Amino acid sequence: MEKIIVRGGNRLSGTVKVEGAKNAVLPVIAATLLASDGKSVIRDVPTLSDVYTINEVLRYLNAEVAFKDNTVTVNASRELSVEAPFEYVRKMRASVLVMGSLLARNGRARVALPGGCAIGSRPIDQHLKGFEAMGATVKVGNGFIEAEAAGGRLHGAKIYLDFPSVGATENIMMAATLAKGTTILENVAKEPEIVDLANFLNKMGAKVRGAGTGTIRIEGVDVLFGADHNIIPDRIEAGTFMVAAAITGGDVLVQGAVPEHSTSLIAKMEEMGVIFIEEAEGIRVLGPDKLKAVDIKTMPHPGFPTDMQSQMMALLLHANGTSVITETVFENRFMHVEEFRRMNADVKIEGRSVIMNGPSNLQGAEVAATDLRAAAALILTGLVADGVTRVTELKHLDRGYVNFHQKLAALGADIERISEKEETVVDEEAYITDMNA
Ligand SMILES: CC(=O)N[C@H]1[C@@H](OP(=O)(O)OP(=O)(O)OC[C@H]2O[C@@H](n3ccc(=O)[nH]c3=O)[C@H](O)[C@@H]2O)O[C@H](CO)[C@@H](O)[C@@H]1O
Ligand SMILES: C=C(OP(=O)(O)O)C(=O)O
């Protein structure tokens, strides 16, 4: 078993570079399947286990995929298969994002049902509602979702989402690019990752307008081509390092962080007394001696991101006074609370809220990550806990963070990652096909 071991007490300082965004790269790689002509070259791709998984899904679907030097190259011009099996979808729910592309490209898709996960049941009814409105017949059975477009091609439609779901917005947007006619998608997600996907689709020859607003209009085209694209910086990784600086009273330049992508987070942290300085290269974060308590409610973008909820909980445990966090996006995203309690945190759950009386007298303990952001949050707590914190279940961390402990160590944290027995290292090189050959 692998563990991260943190000894609390060090103040962080220096510069940390942000990777490309996981939540932008996964839909963009899924979108490369739409190109029946030419190669797509995706740059600034983080070396995360989720990226390896989506690459495997694409290879399974008969696309040629190479991943080298943070660049993914996809040639999807061959005939594609239509089925994404459970062994991939189980590893990563975002595999369901290939459904829109496959349906648009092949007129048919068969994707394993994603099932529930630690943070909530995460249904995909809104994705399916969109496909149906565009003329697909959708059947769910034997653990699969099967969708087939009448006459082999989807048609444009007017679709209103019940909730601004990120995944549904992306999946329907991809499906609509090759549909006959115009799709108008209302009450959509406005996350920066949606805008990044729309920009990539437009480079491929799609006609997508309005991404980043509440309504997206997609005029269907007959064919899409491979395109070259740089992924936006990861605002959640950036935010995690902002919290690392703040919690240790540190001084850290988060290189590549985009202020407009983190407005709600920065505003809340400023309320807590954290100082932010915009510099040419990124955002410099100065942690105060004493942090103030605040209340937070997670919301779809531009509201406070649920993906920063557990890291902010770590910060609020260290703040002076009573804070309340209310989680409105996922119904079960408080699994980390029990782990924080093992670290002597004064925190309790009341319905969809968590109440903290800070500052907690945090103590090092052995704790298990319950999802990827919880993994980061427990490590952040370890930075200020008294004694040694050991964090297990690191497979979650590796889904969303590249070299997390090395980056913290370079900023001055006393942290290491150990393996209690020989681990099998997955050699991505083995999968690499030379696309230029
Ligand atoms: C790979 C990726 O980009 N993941 C992000 C994406 O996940 P994901 O795209 O899965 O999140 P959604 O925005 O779709 O989900 C938000 C809420 O809507 C519900 N819902 C969603 C779809 C649907 O058809 N029906 C339904 O009820 C979900 O159960 C959840 O409670 O956005 C989330 C919300 O910002 C983030 O936490 C994830 O990091
Ligand atoms: C919940 C997350 O991701 P996913 O949707 O890939 O599980 C996340 O990035 O915090």
What top-tier CATH class of the largest domain fits best?
Answer: Alpha Beta
Question: What class, by secondary structure content?
Answer: alpha/beta
Structure summary, number of beta strands = 26
Rounded Rg: 22 Å
In the CATH hierarchy, what is the architecture of the largest domain at level 2? Alpha-beta prism
Bound ligands, each once: uridine-diphosphate-N-acetylglucosamine, phosphoenolpyruvate
State the domain count.
Answer: 2
Strand content: 25-35%
Our count of helices gives 14
Largest sheet: 4 strands, mixed
List keywords for this structure.
437 residues, alpha/beta, UDP-n-acetylglucosamine1-carboxyvinyl-transferase, Chain, 2 domains, four-stranded mixed β-sheet, 26 strands, 30% helix, elongated, binds uridine-diphosphate-N-acetylglucosamine, binds phosphoenolpyruvate, EC 2.5.1.7, Enolpyruvate_Tfrase_sf, cell wall biogenesis/degradation
Structure description:
- GO terms for molecular function: UDP-N-acetylglucosamine 1-carboxyvinyltransferase activity.
- Keywords: Cell cycle, Cell division, Cell shape, Cell wall biogenesis/degradation, Cytoplasm, Peptidoglycan synthesis, Pyruvate, Transferase.
- One of its GO terms (biological process) is cell wall organization.
- Belongs to the EPSP synthase family. MurA subfamily.
- This is UDP-N-acetylglucosamine 1-carboxyvinyltransferase.
- There is one protein chain.
- This protein is of the alpha/beta class.
- It has two domains: 1-17 and 232-417, Enolpyruvate transferase domain (UDP-n-acetylglucosamine1-carboxyvinyl-transferase, Chain, Alpha-beta prism), CATH 3.65.10; 20-228, UDP-n-acetylglucosamine1-carboxyvinyl-transferase, Chain (Alpha-beta prism).
- It is 30% helix and 27% strand.
- The protein contains 14 helices and 26 strands.
- It has helices at 22-31, 49-60, 86-91, 98-106, 125-133, 166-177, 192-203, 235-247, 263-271, 309-317, 336-342, 372-382, 395-400, 404-410; strands at 2-7, 13-17, 35-37, 39-43, 64-68, 71-75, 83-84, 108-112, 136-141, 144-149, 158-160, 182-186, 207-209, 215-219, 224-225, 228-230, 251-255, 275-279, 282-286, 295-297, 321-326, 347-350, 353-358, 366-368, 388-392, 414-419.
- The strands form seven sheets. The chain has a four-stranded mixed beta sheet with strand order 24-25-1-26, with helices on one face. The chain has a four-stranded mixed beta sheet with strand order 2-17-19-18.
- Helix 4 (98-106) packs parallel to helix 6 (166-177) and helix 6 (166-177) runs parallel beside helix 7.
- The longest helix has 13 residues, at 235-247.
- Residues 422-437 have low confidence and may be disordered.
- The structure holds uridine-diphosphate-N-acetylglucosamine (UD1) and phosphoenolpyruvate (PEP).
- Uridine-diphosphate-N-acetylglucosamine binds next to helix 1, helix 5 and helix 6.
